[in-house]
């Protein structure tokens, strides 16, 4: 058996050109609680290009000078398990969210080691590529909609970026709850996807005033809950889209609005954030186990046919750089997947 594996690595932060396909030492089990996974596919997520550009802060236990392997989630087949692992067996088809930053290699590689407790069985009715499109966006949208948004049936909800990776999953959760959902999109193709997945209104933000369209649709001063999956300048604009006593949930690092908190305080807005990576970085075992339980719920919905990811494109190692650029520029519809 080869002691090498193919991986997409970077030695320093930068643009897509820093990504290099290289033969490196094959990942292997070193602790009894670990699982060795032969990676079949991995999601290409915004966090990947952000980590590529910034370098991200390294794990305190990182080996100095070791290359970084991006890819914060993946799907594959269990090839080996440590003596303490009892929740999966060799040959199981699994998915996970783990690594992708300096010191903890991600899934842009043929093999990946993950602690067994943080591995779950992938949906039975999805192939590997279909499944790889779900873990990060499924979990992030879940925490936004159910944990922070606390959406109720009949609520008027605005999803910014409804045809993006997070937005098109959130729309499906909201439809299942019975919420009334509006979304912002930049093209007719994106509007068609959002409406097909359950949105009631698609606002073409380049041609329409979002605030006016939202008020006309909802019959109130804004939405009960606003999900900002776009961030950056859109975060500040989103404050004006929330009705008094409403909630704004953000998932993207963004600048605060200028001029203080007077507007939000006057309208009694509840503002919150989602960062699914913190339990991993903070080594918060209980919160990571809770995330695994959510992945199991997502898997069940996928197997029931009530949740699906729209896949924009599937690429090999050589296509990851261009795919990350397209993702960063907002050119993709739904998800992008790396097939190993």
TrEMBL record:
GO terms for molecular function: oxidoreductase activity; RNA binding; zinc ion binding. Residues 14-338 form the Enoyl reductase (ER) domain. Keywords: Acetylation, Cytoplasm, NADP, RNA-binding. It is found in: Cytoplasm. Pfam families: ADH_N, ADH_zinc_N. Its main location: cytoplasm. It comes from the Bacteria. GO terms for cellular component: cytoplasm. Homotetramer. This is NADPH:quinone reductase-like Zn-dependent oxidoreductase. It comes from Rhizobium esperanzae.
């Amino acid at each position: 058996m080869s002691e090498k594996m193919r991986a997409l690595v970077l030695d320093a932060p930068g643009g897509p050109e820093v990504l290099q396909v290289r033969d490196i030492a094959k990942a292997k089990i070193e602790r009894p609680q670990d699982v060795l996974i032969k990676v079949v596919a991995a999601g290409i997520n915004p966090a990947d290009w952000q980590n590529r550009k910034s370098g991200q802060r390294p794990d305190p236990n990182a080996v100095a000078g070791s290359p970084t392997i991006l890819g914060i989630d993946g799907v594959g087949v269990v090839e080996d398990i440590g003596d303490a692992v009892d929740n999966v067996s060799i040959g199981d088809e699994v998915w996970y969210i783990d690594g992708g930053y300096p010191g903890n290699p991600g899934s842009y590689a043929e093999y990946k080691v993950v602690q067994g407790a943080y591995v779950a069985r992938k949906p039975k009715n999805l192939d590997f590529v279909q499944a790889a499109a779900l873990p990060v966006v499924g979990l992030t949208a879940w925490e936004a909609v159910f944990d922070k948004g606390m959406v109720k049936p009949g609520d008027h909800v605005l999803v910014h970026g409804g045809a993006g990776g997070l937005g098109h999953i959130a729309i499906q959760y909201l439809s299942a709850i019975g919420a009334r959902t509006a979304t912002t999109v930049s093209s007719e193709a994106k509007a068609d996807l959002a409406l097909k997945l359950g949105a009631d209104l698609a606002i073409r933000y380049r041609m329409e005033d979002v605030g006016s369209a939202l008020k006309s649709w909802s019959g109130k001063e804004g939405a009960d809950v606003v999900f900002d999956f776009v961030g950056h300048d859109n975060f500040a604009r989103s404050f004006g889209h929330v009705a008094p006593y409403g909630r704004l949930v953000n998932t993207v690092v963004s600048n605060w609005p200028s001029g203080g908190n007077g507007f939000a305080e006057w309208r009694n807005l509840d503002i919150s954030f989602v960062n699914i990576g913190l339990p991993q970085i903070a080594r918060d075992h209980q919160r990571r186990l809770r995330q695994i339980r959510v992945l199991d719920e997502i898997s069940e919905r996928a197997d029931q046919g009530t949740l699906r990811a729209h896949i924009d494109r599937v690429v090999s190692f050589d296509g990851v750089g261009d795919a990350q650029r397209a993702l960063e520029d907002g050119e993709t519809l739904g998800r992008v997947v790396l097939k190993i």
